[in-house]
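Structure tokens please, single chain.
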Amino acid sequence: MTKLPHADLRREIIATCLRMTALGINHGTSGNVSARIPDGLLITPSGMAYDQIEPEDIVRLDHDGHYEGRRLPSTEWRFHYDIMRHRPDVDAIVHNHAMHCTVLACLRMEIPAFHYMVAVGGGETIRVAPYARFGTQELSDNALAALDGRRACLLANHGMIALGTDLEKALNLAVEVENLASCYWRCLQVTRPAILTSGQMGEVLERIAAYGKQPEELGPDQTPAFEAPRRLAS
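Here you go.
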């Protein structure tokens, strides 16, 4: 019996999908997940309930955009494929229809710098890609533009995309962006929130890349995320 290539990663993709449902950021068969492999990417199949997907159902796309497997790839394979081609810094992609992200996307409202954690998306705002029908090259092109220099975006009248260096990071970012969308939506029920300045967000962006890193993990010119207390001598 031939061993299934990338079996562990296939199972991790399925686990990520199930986790999205458990976290309440996706419902039914909407949303999709992909991960980079040396000869292309692995992506969830089209129209299957997450709890019915087996590792053999995960589809491989090669570098030329051809697919291999017993299922058709997700309807959104184009933007997964194009993002992987154009963004060597990205190894995992999570797309979902999280409620508050989708509400703002339907209103075509970007998430501004109302909270410093907007910086986790890679910039001063989380942009909204212009509307295009699902599964089209136009949608992929719009998503790529909205993600230029960023790690997350909304898709007008659709949902959201989060990028990461692995599946866990992509999913964590998706959760954070949905939380930001939820907070922003709640602020709007009262009034427009105060927006941080470009200077304030610039300071955050300079430091947030080091968030969670130990001192020895920082690059030679990287600014620490915060001023840490002195460590006691051991």
